[in-house]
């Protein structure tokens, strides 16, 4: 494909590379683009990626593994779109997704991305684990199969397979039961939501996943969906409607906010703790939900919420989006966004780093370990914090 | 792996050096109209010691070295015209000290303007610095090195006048300090030691600044912008003089531009005022708008457009995208204030000739001692013809700035040659001698300040 | 080609000459008022033309249904009595020039909200109040195609209004709008007062924004929780062109449990925001504007207002910061209504 066939061929040259995209709104740190924070070369900034894409499409540079690495290191965290002062900012991530799409088309993507997508295609999850084990997260607890209950509780790949995230998935399930929410799960019939697949440019696979999931949901009569992951929430809410899937989608923190509004949480044992909250990109910047998770935390007896300096739309991404929770193109350095983020969390004086996304959970917990902060900072999903407050162990 | 690559890798470590096409491509480009030239390596060191070793290595191999800050000069100042090693300095981004009493900040060379602004706002709200109109990614040291100016230029001059001390790695690798810090004192003053002003304005050809101490200034409780407008450019020098005589303004800028239409054909002033109380603010407004400029208003020649609380942080000029092409470049002339009318009229002619919407601006420096007058030319990156027009307009404007009796601020190669052709021969000779002495192998940012 | 429909007979038979005797900014007795307005009507100069602050209020004060303010402006232009310095007039005229291409015409085939030249205030148009309501002029780049132009009354430029307005009306008409709900008082005044006075045809009906809000609130009555705020309303100059609609301000307040504080400068005695005055040529205009603002705000404060409610974005721009400094929160009326139905106001500062 040349530039003239590229869907955004008429705008991709408009990036000036002024660099607002690297910052949070108050400019406190130039490292608010996770890929740039990790590599600190202009190539890894948003503008660098756009200029390189254009050069590649114009045949001024050739495709290399390195070029693919640069593009796939973008986590689609959306900081750039919200900070870019120019009129075309709404299309920044569309341009990058289209560029990745072109790489997919040509079969020229990083090997980590290839494995990720192949595993989803074959097994329905990026880890290449058997679909039959997708319900393992439930352990010995009893979660009802979805059979027309009010809500489908959609767990997602990370909550289903990652041992750490499974704990959060399970806690949420138990919490929903405790509050007598009418819900069911899909267990081994659940399949990847495709949010990452979409952001990695594999449009055909995303379409297939969306259609399969929509068909399944419709067959089962699903009307309302609770998601553990903001990534699933985003795909169901913002992408599925264009494939005919119209469901009432809610992130679990939004449901908990409603459930806890009555304020009748009476933990057996009230413990005092200081907690800071890390906004997940697909709940925050992508869907502007900043308040529900905070309200949940604030409604937990004993919890004191302290903010990191970069929060809400200025939050630093953990580095897990765009498939990077699995491909890990941003890991391996003290400059990795997750490690920067846990150091920032520590600076608040919090003992708990709360998350509302299973990807953030696993990545930030790993970062805490690598930074040897285990004894100072615990990473917990809000589902876990809330579960504990309700005496669910 | 080649020996230079290996050497650089040994110095900066994995992940901070590249000779891959992607980095070489991106770092070959300036954001303005300068033609790209590929470097051979890009490195991003973390310490002056690493830079020192890089320079030693470069001298051994006689390979050019190009220091790069924010990369926003738009004049091709960090384009590797003869290849070599680009040193991206932005990883050296620690703010080391803010001295609230003596009002200065010491920082590494990669600290950005945005970072400093934010740091002061959050931690030292009683202090501020002279913030240029560049995007926040511009570096503080880079801005001082090119004699930048900011929003305190009217009371305090160029940002390079605000330097209290420097740490510099010389082209041969020695790490030197200048100012009081060089005798082990605090970084609070550059004077009164013997003047060695060898690094500001030299376009990275005499050394690499690694630390800078910058003067800070009181930040008043209320800051904001008043606007005034006239329809005759001939009034502008007098208005600059009247306002600066009151000594009540922080920043005085006059501008005119085709787009948006309200700004076309008129000269707008933005006048920044700061005060600790409403009483002080009203006093300043009265002195400027009722007393100094009242006559213009009563005659119907000038209009007061009100005062807006709060300063706008610099936004990238929308000029950059008027052609839906993401590009602009400007000539900044350091001009006598009296030249404003000619600067405006002749600049408009150049824009018209190249079919570019005109955009001009004059910022008062000092008590109307000079103004930085910018002629901006937008272009479409995707249209080589429009890039060519902008480049030619730039060259014509370089000549205009000199013709009108001004000097070119941060000239590109074309402007540098024009300046050198007029330079006092003894001065030029001294510059060459200094350059030869500091950089015997001619490795520092070659191409700049060289006769063709 | 358009002629102001001004009837001198009405002035001759006017018992009060309230247009000028009631003026808040000039001290004029009845005899002088009668003499001066007739002089102006006859095409002569008058001190009134020079001292007028262009606050629109005489349009409301006139008991005879005449158009004293339009007359004053027309005469100012004819006699070249410029209330503002020359560059401000030129600047103002240029502001209204569209320069970012042609607007996209969506056919609404019914009623729609008309944002006029305030498409940049679309952030206010959210939530249940506006559900399903089509919007005309929602793109800030194109909004000057919908600019009602009436602002030029402050600039002594009736000629500019009359030159541009028919084109604006045509653009709006191309949307197939039958009923335009005018976001701004000034648009409403343009189409219901100015156009008829000039004989400019308006082929669509117009609805005042506050009437619309009131009716929506009635529809959503069961969502309303009293806001329990003491409020002051900043009446914009253009509201003088539709005084009959002022009651909706108070009807809305009543409906949503807002208490309109007892003020001196309210209703017919409302004070101008000062935005236009501070730039006028007359000596001391800047201070005068500031004094009027001071009077206005201290009146709000003395009356115990917690919130200052706006219709006009220009008033908001001029006053919001000043009222805020006095501990009074500025809010647009639509935002106040949203607050009442349990929504988060978009513009709370």
Describe this structure in words.
- Chain A has helices spanning 34-39, 46-57, 65-72, 79-83, 92-105, 111-123, 157-161, 163-178, 195-199, 203-220, 230-239, 252-260, 291-298, 324-327, 337-347, 358-370, 382-389, and strands at residues 151-154, 183-184, 224-227, 248-251, 273-277, 303-305, 352-355, 378-381.
- Chain A has 17 helices and eight strands.
- In chain A, the strands form two sheets. In chain A, strands 2-1-3-4 form a four-stranded parallel beta sheet. Chain A has a four-stranded parallel beta sheet with strand order 6-5-7-8, sandwiched between helices.
- Chain A has three domains: 3-109, no CATH class; 112-257, Rossmann fold; 263-389, Rossmann fold.
- The model of chain A has no long low-confidence stretch (mean pLDDT 96).
- In chain A, α2 (46-57) crosses α5 (92-105) and α15 (337-347) packs across α16 (358-370).
- In chain B, the strands form four sheets. In chain B, strands 15-12-14-13-17-18-16-19 form an eight-stranded antiparallel beta sheet.
- By secondary structure, chain B is an alpha+beta fold.
- Chain B has four domains: 3-90, Uridine Diphospho-n-acetylenolpyruvylglucosamine Reductase, domain 2 (2-Layer Sandwich); 92-218, Uridine Diphospho-n-acetylenolpyruvylglucosamine Reductase, domain 3; 222-309, Alpha-Beta Plaits (2-Layer Sandwich), CATH 3.30.70; 318-411, FAD-linked oxidases, C-terminal domain (Vanillyl-alcohol Oxidase, Chain A, domain 3, 3-Layer(aba) Sandwich).
- The mean pLDDT of chain B is 96.
- In chain B, α1 runs antiparallel to α3 and α10 (340-353) runs antiparallel to α11.
- Chain C is of the alpha/beta class and 349 residues long.
- In chain C, the strands form two sheets. Chain C has a four-stranded parallel beta sheet. In chain C, strands 6-5-7-8 form a four-stranded parallel beta sheet, with helices on both faces.
- In chain C, α10 runs parallel beside α11.
- Chain C is globular, with a radius of gyration of 20 Å.
- The mean pLDDT of chain C is 96.
- Chains in contact: A-B, B-C.
């Amino acid at each position: 494909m040349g530039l003239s066939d590229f869907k955004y061929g008429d705008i991709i040259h408009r990036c000036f590379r002024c660099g607002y995209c690297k910052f949070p709104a108050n400019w406190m740190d130039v490292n608010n683009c996770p890929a740039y924070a990790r590599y600190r070369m202009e190539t890894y900034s948003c503008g660098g990626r756009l200029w390189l894409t254009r050069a590649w499409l114009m045949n001024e540079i050739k495709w290399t593994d390195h070029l693919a690495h640069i593009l796939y290191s973008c986590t689609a965290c959306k900081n750039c779109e919200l900070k870019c002062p120019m009129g075309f900012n709404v299309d920044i991530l569309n341009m990058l997704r289209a560029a990745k799409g072109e790489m997919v088309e040509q079969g020229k993507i990083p090997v980590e991305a290839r494995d990720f997508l192949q595993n989803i295609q074959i097994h329905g999850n990026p880890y290449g684990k058997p679909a039959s084990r997708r319900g393992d997260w439930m352990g010995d607890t009893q979660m009802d199969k979805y059979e027309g209950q009010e809500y489908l509780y959609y767990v997602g790949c990370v909550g289903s397979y990652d041992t750490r995230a499974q704990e959060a998935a399970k806690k949420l399930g138990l919490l929903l039961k405790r509050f007598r929410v009418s819900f069911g799960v899909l267990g081994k019939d659940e399949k990847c939501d495709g949010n990452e697949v979409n952001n990695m440019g594999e449009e055909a696979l995303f379409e297939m996943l969306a259609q399969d999931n929509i068909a399944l949901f419709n067959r089962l009569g699903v009307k309302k969906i609770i998601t553990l992951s903001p990534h699933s929430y985003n795909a169901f809410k913002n992408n599925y409607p264009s494939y005919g899937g119209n469901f009432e989608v809610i992130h679990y923190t939004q449901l908990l906010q409603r459930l806890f509004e009555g304020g009748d949480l009476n933990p057996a044992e009230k413990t005092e703790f200081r907690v800071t909250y890390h906004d997940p990109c697909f709940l925050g910047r992508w869907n502007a939900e900043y308040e529900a998770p905070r309200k949940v935390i604030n409604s937990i007896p004993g919890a004191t919420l302290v903010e990191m300096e970069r929060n809400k739309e200025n939050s630093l991404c953990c580095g897990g989006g765009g498939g990077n929770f699995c491909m890990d193109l941003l890991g391996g350095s003290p400059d990795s966004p997750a490690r920067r983020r846990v150091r920032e969390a520590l600076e608040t004086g919090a003992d708990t780093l709360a998350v509302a996304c299973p990807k953030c959970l696993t990545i930030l917990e790993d970062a805490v370990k690598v930074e040897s902060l285990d004894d100072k900072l615990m990473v917990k999903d809000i589902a876990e914090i809330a579960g504990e407050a309700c005496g669910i162990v | 792996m080649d020996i230079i690559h290996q050497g650089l890798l040994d110095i900066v470590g994995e992940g901070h050096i590249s000779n891959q096409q992607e980095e070489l491509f991106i770092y070959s480009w300036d954001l303005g109209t300068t033609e790209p030239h590929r470097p051979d390596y890009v490195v991003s060191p973390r310490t002056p010691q690493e830079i020192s070793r890089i320079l030693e290595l470069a001298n051994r191999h006689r390979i050019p070295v190009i220091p790069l800050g924010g990369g926003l000069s738009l004049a091709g100042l960090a384009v590797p015209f003869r290849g070599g090693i680009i040193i991206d300095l932005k990883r050296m981004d620690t703010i080391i000290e803010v001295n609230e009493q003596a009002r200065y900040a010491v920082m590494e060379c990669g600290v950005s303007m945005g970072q400093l602004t934010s740091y002061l706002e959050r931690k030292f709200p009683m202090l501020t610095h002279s913030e240029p109109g560049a995007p926040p990614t511009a570096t503080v040291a880079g801005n001082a090195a090119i004699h930048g100016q900011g929003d305190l230029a009217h009371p305090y001059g160029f940002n390079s006048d605000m330097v209290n001390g420097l740490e510099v790695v010389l082209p041969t690798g020695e790490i030197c300090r200048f100012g009081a810090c060089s005798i082990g004192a605090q970084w609070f003053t550059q004077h009164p030691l013997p003047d060695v002003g060898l690094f500001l304005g030299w376009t990275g050809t005499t050394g690499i600044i690694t630390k800078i101490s910058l003067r800070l200034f009181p930040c008043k409780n209320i800051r904001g912008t008043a606007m005034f407008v006239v329809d005759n450019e001939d009034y502008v020098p007098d208005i600059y003089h009247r306002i600066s005589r009151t000594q009540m303004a922080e920043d005085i800028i006059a501008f005119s531009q085709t787009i948006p239409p309200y700004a076309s054909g008129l000269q707008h002033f933005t006048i920044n005022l700061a005060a600790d109380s409403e009483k002080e603010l009203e006093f300043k407004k009265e002195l400027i708008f009722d007393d100094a400029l009242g006559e213009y208003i009563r005659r119907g020649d000038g209009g007061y457009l009100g005062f807006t609380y709060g300063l706008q942080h610099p936004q990238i000029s929308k000029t950059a995208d008027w052609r839906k092409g993401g590009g602009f470049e400007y000539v900044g002339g350091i001009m006598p204030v009296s030249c404003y009318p000619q600067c405006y009229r002749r600049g408009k002619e150049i824009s018209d000739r190249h079919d570019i919407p005109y955009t001009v601006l004059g910022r008062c420096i000092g008590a109307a001692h000079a103004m930085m007058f910018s002629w901006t030319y937008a272009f479409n990156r995707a249209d080589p013809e429009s890039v060519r027009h902008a480049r030619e307009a730039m060259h014509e404007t370089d000549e205009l700035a000199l013709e009108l009796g001004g000097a070119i601020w941060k000239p590109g190669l074309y402007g540098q040659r024009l300046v050198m052709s007029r330079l006092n021969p003894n001065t030029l000779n001294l510059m060459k001698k200094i350059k030869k002495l500091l950089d015997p192998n001619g490795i520092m940012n070659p191409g700049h300040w060289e006769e063709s | 080609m358009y002629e102001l429909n001004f009837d001198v007979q009405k002035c001759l038979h006017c018992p009060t000459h309230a247009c000028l005797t009631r003026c808040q900014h000039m001290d004029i007795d009845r005899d002088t008022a009668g003499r001066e307005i007739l002089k102006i009507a006859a095409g002569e100069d008058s001190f009134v033309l020079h001292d007028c602050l262009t606050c629109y209020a005489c349009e409301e004060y006139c008991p005879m249904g005449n158009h004293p303010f339009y007359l004053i402006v027309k005469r100012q232009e004819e006699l070249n009595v410029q209330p503002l310095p020359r560059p401000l007039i030129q600047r103002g005229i240029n502001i209204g020039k569209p320069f970012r291409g042609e607007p996209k015409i969506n056919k609404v085939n019914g009623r729609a909200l008309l944002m006029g030249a305030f498409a940049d205030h679309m952030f206010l148009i959210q939530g249940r109040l506006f559900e399903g309501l089509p919007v005309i002029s929602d793109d800030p780049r194109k909004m000057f195609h919908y600019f009602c132009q009436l602002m030029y009354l402050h600039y002594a430029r009736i000629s500019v209004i009359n030159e541009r307005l028919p084109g604006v009306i045509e653009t709006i008409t191309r949307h197939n709008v039958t009923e335009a709900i005018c976001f701004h008082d000034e648009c409403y005044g343009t189409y219901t007062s100015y156009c008829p006075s000039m004989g400019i045809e308006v082929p669509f009906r117009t609805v005042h924004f506050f009437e619309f809000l009131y009716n929506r609130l009635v529809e959503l009555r069961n969502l309303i929780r009293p806001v329990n705020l003491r409020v002051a309303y900043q009446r914009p100059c253009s509201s003088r062109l539709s005084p009959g609609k002022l009651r909706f301000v108070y009807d809305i307040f009543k409906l949503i449990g807002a208490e309109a504080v007892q003020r001196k400068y309210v209703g017919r005695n409302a004070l101008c925001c000062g935005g236009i005055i501070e730039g006028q040529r007359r000596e001391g205009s800047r201070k005068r504007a500031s004094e009027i603002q001071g009077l206005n705000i201290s009146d709000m404060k003395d009356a115990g207002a917690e919130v200052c409610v706006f219709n006009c974005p220009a008033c908001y721009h001029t006053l919001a910061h000043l009222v805020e400094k006095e501990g009074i929160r500025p809010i647009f009326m639509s935002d106040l209504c949203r607050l009442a139905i349990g929504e988060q106001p978009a513009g709370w500062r």
